[in-house]
Structure formats: structure tokens, C-alpha cells
Amino acid sequence: LKEENASLKSKINKLQIFSETQADKMRKLEKKLAENKIKEEKEARDLEAMVQHVEQNLQLMTKRAVKAENSATKLKQENALLQVQLKNYKTENEALRLGQSASLATVKQNADIALQNLLTVITNSRSSIKQLVSGAESLQLVADLLKSIDRISEMSEDGQ
Questions:
Q1: What is the full DSSP assignment across 72-85?
Q2: Taking the model in full, what pTM does it have?
């Protein structure tokens, strides 16, 4: 009976040691789980902040693109008007050559002014078109970034 009692006490001691070991492992795992949860929450906040920043940049670039488009449209209209004026000046110049209007110097001056205006509009149009293209490229870059953010969040969810 003493031997059996000693054997049972030995088993109880072993089970208590095993139970303590398991409790330690469980505490460590709970601590690690809490740390991982805090880490994931921080990553989620950081990711949300990045998404908001990207959205703000996207809105800003969209405004710039709209402004550039409007400017390009306005410059194209002005360009068309100046081309009509240039055509009129050329017609007037031809008429002067035939002796039907004012002096050749006035026509030449008007043609030069129209040409200068036309060159200015063309230069401005090119600049606005370049800005529009640059804005479109920036929007494409932001769209690609948003796609990659979606992939990162999908990979993060799969990793859990």
C-alpha cells in the first residue's frame, strides 16, 4: 500500500510538473497572441493612414488633371481663333498685294502679330498638354499603388 501510495504521489508530482509546464506554455502563447494582435492593429492603422494619404494625393492629382484639361481646351479654342485670324490676315495680305486695301507694311505687321500670338498659344498649349500627360501618369501610378495595397492586404489576410 505504501509502494502504491508512493507511486501515486510520484505520478501526481509528474502530472503537476506537466500541468505547470503546460500553463507556462499557455501563458507564453497568450502573451505572444496579445503582442501579435497589437502589432496587427498598428499595421492596420498605418495601412489606413497610408490609404488616406494616397486618396488625398489622388484627389489633388485629379483636380490638377481637370484644371490642365480645362486649360488645354481653352488654349485649343484660342489657338483655333488665332488660326482663323491668321487666315483672315493672310487673305487681307493677298488683297493688299492686289491693291485693294491698306499698305503692305500694316498687313505684314498684322501678320507678324498674329504669328506671334499663334506661337505663344502653341507654346502654352504644349506646356498644358505636357502637364495633362504628367497628371495622367501620376494618376496611373496612384492606381497601381492602390492595387498593390489591395494585394498586400489580401496577402496579410492569407497569412493569418
A1: HHHHHHHHHHHHHH
A2: 0.40
